[in-house]
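Example record used in the benchmark description.
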Amino acid sequence: VITSYAATLFALTLARERTSLELGQRYQGAILDALVSGHFLDSHDARRKARSLGVADTEAYRVAVARVSAPKPNFGPGHPGGREPAEEALNRLAGSMSCATVIRGPELVMLLPEQPDGATPDRTLGAVTVPVSRTPLNLPPLTAGKQLTCGLSEPTEWPELAPQALLQAQHAIDVGIRIGRTGQTISYSELGIYRLLLQIGNM
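Model output (structure tokens):
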């Protein structure tokens, strides 16, 4: 009886902690989504949002975006296994992150505080080399047939520029895929002449 009671109590405790963790992740996701969408009152409000996501005042950060490409399943959406493989992979990635994340459509958006010295070393994880900041990116290996392409914005110290940083990361992915770098990490700062083409396209 005591063993059964202890096991039940332990299971309830784990369930409560898991629920609290999920709620915390959803809250952070909502704040990050608002920040990168530009849904803040002013720069002070943006700064408060950034602090709640672990970015200290005057601390530089980057926005990273991960996009998964995978073959479409052969069964219909009503099939028990008909969930999009890309969606499954993004949820798995989001659950493995130690930084603030949010899934926005087909992309996983991450907020990465920079290292104190401004360096961003590379880390090879599976087939993808991901520049990491002070918050490590422990990306799990993807299953066969899926490719993870990551885009990385330039560093900025201004939380109100988060929407611009998001666009930079997305542009890096778009250009990277077009020039044959699917499955790699592309930094906006290394786009070179392609950045001019992007600016012309936005005029």
